[in-house]
Write a structure and sequence with these properties.
The complex is a heterodimer of chains A (396) and B (432).
Chain A: H1 3-12, H2 14-46, E1 56-63, H3 73-86, E2 91-97, E3 108-111, H4 117-120, E4 122-130, H5 134-138, E5 142-145, E6 159-164, H6 165-172, E7 181-182, E8 185-191, E9 207-210, E10 220-226, H7 231-245, E11 249-256, H8 257-264, H9 266-300, H10 302-310, H11 315-349, H12 360-385, H13 391-394
Parallel strand pairs in A: 4-9, 6-8
Antiparallel strand pairs in A: 1-10, 1-11, 2-10, 3-4, 5-8, 6-9, 7-8
Helix pairs in contact in A: 1-11, 2-9, 2-11, 2-12, 3-7, 9-12, 11-12
Chain B: H1 2-17, H2 19-47, E1 58-59, E2 79-80, H3 81-88, E3 95-107, E4 115-122, H4 126-129, E5 134-137, E6 148-152, H5 153-160, E7 169-172, E8 175-183, E9 207-210, H6 211-216, E10 226-227, H7 239-242, E11 245-253, H8 257-276, H9 294-297, H10 303-333, H11 335-343, H12 348-384, H13 396-422, H14 426-431
Parallel strand pairs in B: 4-9, 6-8
Antiparallel strand pairs in B: 1-11, 2-11, 3-4, 3-7, 3-11, 5-8, 6-9, 7-8, 10-11
The chains are: A alpha+beta (396), B alpha+beta (432).
């Protein structure tokens, strides 16, 4: 079996081979980029959040009367709501906050060391007003200082602040920074990192005040930590429990942190699913094409195969020869496909965030494509082996 | 007609002779068209111009009127109340309106449960600038605060059971308002007047309140607000009117190029006078994007839809190549039939007519099959990207585009194979 002869056979069917090559190249390009995007989404979804996603729930609400949106009625409502939530079987801890973690954006502020604004200013850092149980509810670890007492009153001014580890390291290069002065108050404690805002200055940068809610114009969040395996059961009761406390309430959403996390990456997840679906369909289409190409070739070359058989070619040789033709086509298609994949990757990078193609990924994509093509041409190749040497006599 | 029926019959006989290859060709072509069309629906609807006769005359003025040296290539996306007052002092625009969106609760009386309703706080000219169609009543005579609202037909029917509700009252956050007008079921898609925070894909509001009243009621923007000094945003009615609390969108209508240039000059003069007064520490960076460019200006267009559009186009190409490939095999198998016809005296023109009937038949079947595939694709996309659900509607122009696209694809799929089959060497083919 000579490579030159294989090329010659392919060249004899240049139009058909050309069409097949284009298909294979485009399929590999899409497959590669889909793998890339799916892998990126998987990494984003599996990245550490510092939170117990499966056993935490967030309920975002807003009172529907103006009176309930202002202290002291709001303080009373919050106390009643938290009390009722703590009594739900399966709830381990409950707290309020002006906003939940794991969001795209929300209430943010810039933060800097007093006297060093230009050198240390970090914009868009999530700013939380939380109740005393917040640390326990989110399962955060106290790394330095002590969790502050509830700060009454709703003024924005100087107050004890809790910051996350990453923010402390960014501002001071260390964790033990209790007593340091920031533009929003004095650092009272440093806690372990948790995922704040995706669109913030840093996903693990957060600063908190254990205080009354500054404003509930955008609603507030009730956070719950539940016993393992109780999330769904507890969640299904929450709307009714909260409405029983006070019916003047709009419930925007009631989600587990797992759902909230997935919601944060909804766009990427959706695109990865759609591209994977299209890649699957493209592979299927390419398999049909390879099958059709091989099958048609076998039908048209029966006499040629018969002559080869009559001249002593074994069934195995005919089988390998046909598969080799397809492997050669697929190999060339794959090489062209890598070039197309780079082009597609650059085009996609203009509109979405997508990493560049790594070295190992084309190898995986090529193996998948070659596997599919081999599978598709197996049956026509088997058919070719059934061509009898007697067929050759018909040409005489 | 008789000739057409004959060609149709010949096509059907040819299909019946080898139905599986034909079915696969049609299925693959339909799959490519269906997936492409599903995404094309969103792409078309998201990028359409909702006011084509006016979108080049509506502008969103932007200035660096902030109390610090602003970085970035563009000014802050929203304006403060005092900034809007300064811009609104110009008499150049034909119409102008400041606005923002907020959450409110509506009920007919205190005994009813509150209904959450998206509210747009705006000014009188909003309705004429964006061609908001009125069903009943009239818009406020000026921009002053008043306890009057304009409501959507849908909300009117939900609250009162009918739409003729001008003069009736309702409670918004326990304050009594009189309904001055009712807007026809109106859905501006995309909602370009609210593009600065990617809200142009949301539904149109059902309640419209005078901006001054909304400020008096301390309504904060539900979508974007930034406090750039010590202003207490809870004191919107007082500090919010003087401090650097930015939450307003501001639109002006400038009908002629002369008006547009005059307004640019006005903005430049305003920036210079503010700078002289020490209220404009940043470099002058005035912007005046038109409504038709506003999504691009704010980089608020959907990258996911664009990326998927590119990929579905590639998929369509692959399907097209595949269908051509299958079709070529099919025609080459039937080459003998073509040759026989030619031997019996059929001209190449007659063979081409046969090919055209094949194309029409392929188009009809492909359109019929691609529509359910497109519907399935749209359902999947709505499930994965619920934010775009408003943009999944088909209209006549979209359907006609699909038919034309299917016709073009069918022609391409049939053209080369048919030519190849009908232009071969006659003797050789007959011998085969």
């Amino acid at each position: 079996m000579s490579l030159r002869l294989l090329f010659k056979t392919l060249f004899r069917r240049k139009m058909v081979t050309g069409l097949l090559l284009v298909q294979l190249a485009l399929t590999l390009a899409l497959l590669l980029n889909s793998l890339l995007l799916a892998n990126q989404t998987r990494q984003q979804l599996n990245a550490p959040t510092g939170l117990d996603l499966a056993n935490s729930i967030t309920v975002h609400v807003r009172p529907t009367t103006k009176q309930l949106r202002q202290y002291p009625a709001l303080g009373d409502l919050l106390a009643r709501q938290l009390q009722a939530l703590r009594e739900v079987p399966g709830v381990v801890a409950a707290a309020y906050a002006n906003q939940p973690p794991l969001r795209q954006g929300g209430n943010q502020g810039n933060i800097f060391k007093v006297g060093a604004e230009e050198q240390t200013n970090i914009p868009k850092v999530p700013n939380y007003f939380v109740s005393a149980d917040f640390m326990q509810t989110l399962g955060l670890t106290l790394l330095a200082g002590s969790w502050p007492q509830h700060h009454s009153g709703t003024t924005e001014g100087a107050r004890p602040l809790v910051i996350t580890e990453s923010l402390a390291r960014q501002l001071f290069n260390e964790v033990d920074v209790v007593g340091e002065q920031l533009n929003h108050g004095t650092v009272a404690a440093v806690v372990s990192d948790f995922y704040g805002h995706r669109g913030g200055g840093g996903i693990m940068y957060n600063y908190l005040s254990v205080a009354d809610l500054y404003s509930v114009d955008w609603g507030y969040t009730l956070l719950l930590r539940v016993a393992p395996g109780q999330a769904e059961r507890v969640r299904s009761q929450l709307d009714a429990v909260l409405r029983q406390v006070d019916s003047n309430l709009e419930i925007y959403y009631n989600r587990t942190f797992t759902e909230q996390h997935r919601y944060l990456f909804e766009t990427e997840f959706g695109l990865a699913v759609l591209l994977s679906l299209l890649s699957g369909l493209m592979l299927m289409v390419s398999m049909v094409s390879s099958y059709s190409n091989a099958h048609f070739h076998v039908l048209k070359s029966q006499q040629e195969i018969g002559i080869k058989r009559a001249l002593g070619a074994s069934k195995q040789l005919i089988f390998i020869e046909l598969l080799s033709e397809n492997w050669l086509t697929s190999g060339i298609g794959c090489l062209l496909g890598v070039l197309c994949a780079v082009g597609l990757n650059q085009a996609l990078a203009l509109v979405i965030s997508i990493p560049v193609i790594s070295l190992w990924l084309p190898v995986i994509a090529m193996l998948v494509l070659l596997g599919c093509v081999t599978l598709a041409t197996w049956y026509p190749a088997r058919l070719a082996t059934l061509v009898s040497p007697a067929t050759a006599t018909k040409t005489l | 007609m008789e000739q057409f029926l004959y060609y149709l019959k010949a096509s059907l006989i040819s299909i019946r002779r080898a139905p599986l290859p034909y079915l696969i060709t049609v299925l693959i072509l339909s799959l490519g068209l269906g997936m492409f069309f599903a995404n094309a629906t969103f792409y078309y609807q998201l990028n359409r111009d909702p006011l084509p006769h006016k979108s080049a005359q509506l502008f969103f003025p932007q200035m660096n009127l902030v109390p610090f040296v602003a970085g970035g290539s563009k000014p802050i996306q929203v304006l403060s109340y005092s900034n809007v007052q300064k811009l609104a002092a110009s008499s150049i625009p034909t119409a102008q309106a400041a606005m923002y969106s907020t959450d409110s609760y509506v009920r007919l009386d205190a005994s009813q449960p509150a209904l959450p309703v998206k509210l747009r706080a705006t000014q009188r000219d909003f309705f004429s600038m964006f061609d908001v169609p009125l069903l009943h009543g009239a818009i406020w005579p000026d921009n002053s605060a008043r306890d009057e609202v304009v409501i959507g037909q849908l909300l009117a029917e939900k609250l009162f059971g009918h739409s003729d509700v001008v003069g009736k009252t309702l409670l918004i956050d326990d304050r009594i308002f009189t309904i001055s007008a009712v807007v026809v079921r109106w859905q501006m898609l995309p909602r370009l007047y609210d593009a600065n925070n990617r809200n142009h894909t949301s539904e149109t509001e059902q309640l419209f309140m005078p901006l001054e009243t909304a400020y008096d009621m301390n309504y904060m923007s539900a979508t974007m607000s930034r406090t750039l000094d010590d202003t207490d945003y809870r004191q919107l009615s007082t500090q919010g009117r003087t401090g650097a609390l930015h939450q307003l969108q501001f639109w002006v209508q400038l009908d002629t190029p002369a008006q547009q240039q005059a307004y640019r000059d006005f903005m430049l003069q305003l920036a210079q006078s503010e700078k002289a007064a020490g209220r404009h520490p940043s470099a002058v960076n005035n912007q005046l994007p038109a409504m038709r460019d506003i999504v691009q200006y704010f980089a608020a267009d959907s990258g996911d839809i664009k990326a998927y559009a590119l990929v579905t186009l590639l998929f369509l190409l692959v399907c097209l190549f595949n269908a051509s490939h299958l079709s070529l095999n099919r025609y080459l198998s039937n080459q003998y039939e073509f040759s026989l016809r030619r031997a019996l005296g059929a001209s190449r023109w007659q063979l081409q007519q046969q090919m055209w009937v094949d194309v029409l038949l392929l188009t009809a079947i492909t359109v019929l099959l691609s529509l359910p595939i497109a519907l399935a694709g749209i359902s999947l996309m709505n499930y994965l990207w619920p934010d775009h659900v408003l943009f999944s509607q088909w209209d006549l122009s979209l359907l006609l585009t699909l038919v034309l696209l299917a016709l073009g694809c069918s022609y391409v799929v049939t053209l080369y194979p048919a030519i190849r089959a009908s232009f071969g060497g006659l003797n050789q083919q007959l011998k085969e």
